[in-house]
Amino acid sequence: MRTLLLLFVLMNLDKLLKTGCCTETQDQILSITPKTQEQVDILKNISTQYETALWQPVSSHYIQEETEVHLFVPANSSETVKDLLQKGAITHEVLLANANELIEMQTRNDSTDPRSSSTFYDRYHSLEDIYYWINKTQEDNPSIVKVILIGSSYEKRPLYVLKLSLNNRPNKKAMWIDCGIHAREWISPAFCLWFVQYALSFYKINQEITDILDNMDVYILPVMNPDGYQYTWTTNRMWRKNRSISKSSNCIGVDLNRNFDANWCTEGASNEPCTEIYCGAFPESEPETGAVAGFLRSHKDSVQIYLSIHSYSQMLLFPYSCTLDEAENHKDLLEMVQEAAQLIRRHYWNTYRYGSGAKTIYLAPGGSDDWAYNLGIKYSFTFELQDRGRYGFLLPPSFISRACNEALLAVKTVALKVIEKT
Ligand code: ARG
Ligand code: ZN
Fold it and tell me: Which positions ≥6 away from 32 have C-beta within 8 Å?
């Protein structure tokens, strides 16, 4: 009997260690709401001085009383962090107890032949696979898809834009969509791939996408921050910025969505390279920013819609984020995202908040949407996809199709309204 028991324990040791008893062997996401200024200070200290990654808010600077904080705590700092929280009498909730398992799940299915399976668009893909997909998509659809090299990243990876063009009407307008400005927001590149696939498969089948593609070309940049994206696959899943090396600091990376020339580096960005919202040495200091800004400058007469895809929090945002001032066509923009949010609620029972960036979330200068807007692209948006914090940046692959279909509905709504107006 005793040997049987021993045998059982030995056979299940692996499972027992992974679950039940020892949560410290897992990376976790904690939800913490500080109640006093003292607790705010403790949290700021934890999130900056210990090996953790702040999910929400974007920088420790914004931690405040009675506002929920989402913190990624790697297994090896778990004990220290929980001790510090306990000492400060700060309660926490474990949002995810098994972050490593989720990360493993998201990277597992990435095959070397990315087109071998019918579920390609329901999975996350390595940078290498995305480059392969870009090439293959062009080869399979030579009359519709063009690949344009718009520049390269800090580490010299190519930045490819797919141009979808179904006809050669004179004075044709265009829509721009970029994904993956922020490395850890994996649902974003997944959306760009999803969108291309949807457009290619449903042209002449779905009325709305047909109307859109008959009337405008679409430029899609699937991964604006390839160095950061690669880094999230190999080294640190929680990386946000690009990977550029600073002259003045040992800390790496610039927040590309603070590096555009729109009230650059004012309140809501930081000139400190060690923060997640570092604005860089000067506007467009980063090659990724420069490539996108350069392309849009030279196509500003045709591009009517600018769209930047992020996650998470489920929001449909428009300018301004760099000032509390209202955009000149605020009412139009508000109407568009309001309708999109209503449709998402009706079709998918899901809630998206909407409004100008500064008023809906926070002041965040140097963003691509504000810059594009000031360039003259008057229909400029940032969409924050699923979810609202349950899985955060670690949205499981099984959620990809829902998240993308919701976003697609929002994109269609906006594009059709612009076509109708102009
Ligand atoms: N979460 C995004 C960020 O912090 C929001 C972007 C909204 N637009 C903006 N220009 N900041 O970058
Ligand atoms: Zn983002």
Answer: 43, 68, 69, 71, 85, 90, 91, 92, 93
Calculate how far, in angstroms, residue 248's C-alpha sits from the geometric centre of ligand 1: 25
Indicate which ligand has the atom closest to the C-alpha of 59. Answer: 1
362 token code pair: 């926070």
The Cα 155–Cα 144 span in angstroms is 30
| Ligand 2 centre distance from Cα of residue 311 (Å) | 6
Nearest atom in ligand 1 to 322's CA = 10
Residues 422 and 403: their CA atoms lie apart, in Å, by 29
185 lines ligand 1 (CB under 6 A): no
Alpha helices in 204-317 (DSSP H): 207-215, 226-234, 287-298
Rounded Cα distance, 77 and 91, in Å: 17
- The pTM of the full predicted model, rounded to 2 decimals, is 0.92
Please state the atom number of ligand 1 nearest to the C-alpha of residue 366.
10
Is any ligand 1 atom within 6 A of the Cβ of residue 129? Answer: no
Predicted pLDDT of residue 12: 55
- Residues 224, 179: contact at Cβ < 8 Å? yes
| Tens-digit pLDDT profile for residues 36-64 | 999 999 999 999 999 999 999 999 999 99
